[in-house]
Design a protein that fits this description.
Layout (H helix, E strand, L loop, with lengths): L15 E6 L4 E6 L2 E9 L17 E9 L7 E4 L2 E6 L2 H6 L6 E10 L18 E4 L15 E3 L1 H10 L5 E5 L1
Length: 173
């Protein structure tokens, strides 16, 4: 499946899908071959890779397994995929300096390529690979995450509303 840039049409016509280009740190939302929107992101600071515990961003075809956080406010803090009731602020960040901030919305990814990004020690879902919101002071446009795809909070809300469970996501260099 790697190198294939389009998902199959769904019952309503051409499917929406997401392309994440790690080289440019951009996420693109497509309807078939038509670009709908493009966003600046931040991927894993340790580069690309599929191994559990690597801190790398996995490549290949994925699917959105779950959409988490509908109707949460901008800056809502998530721990273990559950909203804590907190809203991100510099004061909160000072209180928890080591926290990996997962904010606003979560799109949880599951790999589709057995042995590459699915099952065993390379399973993206079991690695908890997400597309999620990040604090405004987190740099976008360069690899800096722990393996997930970080986005601006307003951008992740817009993407969240445009995709559904089972939307395909291709992550490539």
């Amino acid at each position: 499946m790697i190198g294939q840039r389009r998902s199959e049409p769904d019952s309503e016509g051409a499917a929406r899908w997401v392309l994440i280009e790690l080289g440019t740190q951009r996420l693109h939302l497509y309807q078939a071959n038509r670009l709908l929107s493009s966003y600046l992101v931040s991927s894993g600071r340790n580069g690309v890779g599929e191994q559990m515990g690597s801190g790398c961003t996995p490549r290949g075809w994925h699917v959105i397994r779950a959409r988490i956080g509908a109707n949460q406010p901008l800056g809502a803090v998530f721990v273990g995929r559950r909203p804590t009731g907190e809203i991100y602020s510099p004061a909160l960040a000072n209180r928890y300096p080591g926290r990996d901030w997962i904010l606003t919305r979560i799109l949880w990814l599951s790999g589709l390529e057995q042995g590459f990004n699915r099952l065993g020690s390379v399973d993206s879902m079991r690695r908890f690979i997400y597309i999620h919101g990040a604090p405004a002071n987190v740099p976008l446009g360069l690899p800096a995450s722990k393996g997930c795809i970080r986005m601006g909070n307003a951008d992740v809300v817009e993407l969240f509303e445009a995709v559904s469970v089972r939307t395909r996501v291709l992550i490539e260099r």
